[in-house]
Amino acid sequence: MERTIQKRLSVGGGGGEGGGDGASWVTVDVYGDPDAPGLVIVPGAMADARAWRDVATAIEAWDSVAVVNRRGRAPSGPLTDAYSLRTEVADLGVVLDEFSGTEALFGWSYGGLIALLAADERPLRQVVAYEPVIRPFGLDVLPDLKAAEAAEDWDAVVGIVHRRIAGVDAAVVESLRADRETWDALCRLARPAYAELAALYGPPLPDEPARRADRVDLIVGGSNQGRAPYGTSFDDVARRVPRAGVHVLPGQGHMAHLEGPGELGRLISALAAADR
Q1: Cα(253)–Cα(239) distance, rounded to whole angstroms?
Q2: Which of 112, 131, 242, 264 is 20 to 30 A (C-alpha) from 52?
Q3: Region labeled Disordered — which residues (predicted)?
Q4: How far does Cα 204 stand from its chain's mean position?
């Protein structure tokens, strides 16, 4: 499928440029038939809708795939001072209202948690989450992320996320830094990173999320099974959703949407087929 339209939706009580009182906006990239019920994708931190285009075009189980560009990343609006996980769930609710008849909801990483929480508030046929994160994920780096954000040192934020959270090898980080265009894009995506990680430590989360979903599927990359931080956080989520089906994407890690988009798209499609 190819991208057909991009929609802009007002969220948080409005869509004004100032973003006051939590008001902002999100854009949604739609692939395939914009009038057909299909799949909604919720990316996580350090990613935007554009990063998911190869997965969206690889999915064949639905006539449409809508990829949310969450607030905090262009061309969507600001997080605003009132930002929290509740903000994200409410924003996603606006998207689901716009795409009524959505057959399945998919979330990656932080977006996976958002998707599971959304399925606690409204009935959904199917929710799929790839390596969703939950506290105590990233707790040890919160103070340093906060200091880097206060200094508007986005270079430092990218370094903290890649080296201290994701455990990326220093040589790989330096190769990314050497590509100015790539590094600048990462620095732009890093701006909401502290607020998003801090949101995990807001009000207590449900003991068992996604209670209103008919079916829940959780996916872990084969390279991350049982390994901190993503595999162990995945296990924490899986324990909270004991009725979920657990699936492994062989040979992939947390960045499967970039490193194996075709394989991820086929697995998501297969899970949909199994539900029908």
Answers
A1: 20
A2: 242
A3: 1-20
A4: 20
